[in-house]
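Many groups now describe folds with learned vocabularies. In that spirit, our science desk offers one protein's residues alongside their backbone shape tokens.
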Amino acid sequence: MSNKFDALKISDESGDDESQAKNNLKTDKDEVVAPEINPNEHKLQYAYALWYSRRNPGKQNSIQSYDRNLKLVGRFASVEQFWGLYSHLTRPSELTTHTDFHLFKIGIKPMWEDEANQRGGKWIVRLRKGLVSRCWENLILAMLGEQFMVGEEICGAVVSIRFQEQLIESEIHYDVSYIFHPLLQWSTRHIMKVSKTLQDREDGKIELLEAKLQEELK
């Protein structure tokens, strides 16, 4: 079987036409449709698309260049389709630096400009090297299996490989603080830092969440 990443050639082009990239966003994501599933397959609650991207280190990417660097790896809507794709993927720990996997519900593109992401935020877990593959698998299996009880609020998940650390992100529609509590049970002694960014910030609520997370990590 040929490597699924043979066609993932990264463009270095950067564009000035940001508005054009935003206008094309809806059209691009609407072209990604859920695959058909066989009657004997186990259907997931949501259909998902897996994307791959690689960033240019030290270079600020525009919306247009970021969009061009997003490559669709595959789609799935059942348990069987997921394992058929996942079993042939390179594990995050084996990826080169400045690369990302984005696993998002079909209909939502892994960009902040997507309407589903604009009013939400993301939770970030920073990990020491060597743990990312296991933690990424735990996260996506929990997400696909609706283990967070707030599946309708989750847009997707991202794993990012950087030089000295790896990052796992969960992007959400709104502020769902308990989404990452199960993840903190992995191996909290190995977690370097937990942070979050929310576009609609409520200072009191954010301070409370930070205090609760710090208590979890003690």
DSSP finds six helices and seven strands in the chain. The domain at 43-211 is CATH 3.30.760.10 (RNA Cap, Translation Initiation Factor Eif4e). Helices lie at 18-30, 63-69, 79-86, 115-118, 132-144, 203-217. The CA atoms of residues 100 and 147 lie 24 Å apart.
